[in-house]
Amino acid sequence: MQKNINVGLIGAGTVGSGVYKVLKKNFSEIYKKTGKKIIIFALAEKDINRAKEIAGDEVIILEDAFDLVSHKDIHIVVELIGGIGISKDLVVEAIKNKKHVVTANKALIAIHGEELVMLANKHNVNLAYEAAVAGGIPIIKSVREGLAGNKIEWIVGILNGTTNYILTEMKENNLAFDVALKQAQELGFAEADPTFDIEGVDAAHKITILASIAFGIPINYEATHVEGISSLDQKDIIYAEELGYKIKLLGITKHNNDSVELRVHPTLIPEKRLVANVDGPMNAVLVQGNMVGPTLYYGAGAGSDPTASAVVADIIDLSRNLESNNTTLIPILGFTSNEIKAKKILSIEDINSEFYLRLSMNNESGVLAKITQVFAQHSISIDAMVQKEIQEDDKVVDIILVTSIMIEKDVNKIINEIEALPETKNKVVKLRIEQLNR
């Protein structure tokens, strides 16, 4: 039995330093669970001083990461530099050198996952990516392995801690979006350039990966519909709460016969749902299986120790199987390779949902009648209608509507007709509603 497992670590940043810390601090605990000594054998980092601060003289320090991925004594390569440029080249080179790879790089998996999985299968090595989705929450293993006996019907997740923190502050402390974002940056929850977070890209990478392992479809980030929270008005958070909802940025994927929904956008969910009460920078994923029903996974979605915990879990899994001739007993995407089949990804206009609409109208008699007439002409019912306080010197009023379940392209037609009314002052605000009870 192979007793020593040599790990090559690429990147000594927040997560890389966390991985070194976890493996060192929990060395004896890991040995008890694996019967093997798992050590950082080499560390590739351009900043040599930072690498020495973390590892001292205990490991080989390399400036060129390509020297690491080809090193004959390394069994597992851990890629933690992020991005989809050199990180992809390094992972490809590692696989070709028959190294098993662990990564926390959600963009890499979401955009190039198909190519990398096929390459890993070709060279009979494994590609592990638990830390790429929801940080320290073991959601990949839960969906791919723990729920393997189920047909997954849908997955809904709060997958980005930055946006969840911002939305929490907008609701709890009545902050405007820009103020909440600045506060998140000052506290280290948001990057100096928060675009990937606030525009939904980060969450889209993650839900794309989850959709693949849930439904056995190719990883297809380009087909994912993505909306962020940067244009969300604080008043809609207040109005939603008055209606019994909270607004969260959700990654949503659903299996509908031969088609799949794959989308990220701000969503109203009933405040009584557990996932609606996940606040601050935390993540949560709700998975609906046909046998087990709904299961909820909650925890830290980012940070050094939680993400490192997920990386080390992958290292342990690979270490347990290293002496086996077949190290891919669990398929990388959860389905056997010949069962990964493309399915139609529904356009956002073809999804069915309830909708929250905010109309800004002139405060004139007959306005409500005109609005209800538009809905009646399309045979769409209104489940709730609330007229808010008058604004702008008694001239403009907000009218809030909640629709029954309808196809999005139909609600868009209604919105176009309402916006064409002379009494309409601004664009109609449209947000989708998910009840999460079916």
Task: Describe the structure in your own words.
The protein is an alpha/beta fold. The protein folds into three domains: 4-136 and 304-338, 3-Layer(aba) Sandwich (Rossmann fold), CATH 3.40.50.720; 141-300, Dihydrodipicolinate Reductase, domain 2, CATH 3.30.360; 349-433, Alpha-Beta Plaits (2-Layer Sandwich), CATH 3.30.70. The chain contains 15 helices and 18 strands. The strands form two sheets. Strands 7, 8, 9, 10, 11, 12, 13, 14, 15, 16, 17 and 18 form a twelve-stranded mixed sheet that branches. A six-stranded parallel sheet has the order 3-2-1-4-5-6, with helices on both faces. The chain is elongated. The two termini are 48 Å apart. The model has no long low-confidence stretch (mean pLDDT 94).
Care to give the gist of this entry?
By secondary structure, the protein is an alpha/beta fold.
Radius of gyration: 24 Å
Regions with little confidence, pLDDT below 50 for 5+ residues: none
- Which class do the helix and strand fractions yield? alpha/beta
CATH class category of the largest domain: Alpha Beta
For this structure, the CATH topology of the largest domain is: Rossmann fold
Quote the average pLDDT. Answer: 94
Q: Helicity level, as a percent range?
A: 25-40%
Largest sheet: 12 strands, mixed
Distance between the termini: 48 Å
Q: What is the count of β-strands?
A: 18
Strand content: 25-35%
The CATH architecture of the largest domain comes to: 3-Layer(aba) Sandwich
Relevant CATH superfamily of the largest domain: NAD(P)-binding Rossmann-like Domain
Shape: elongated
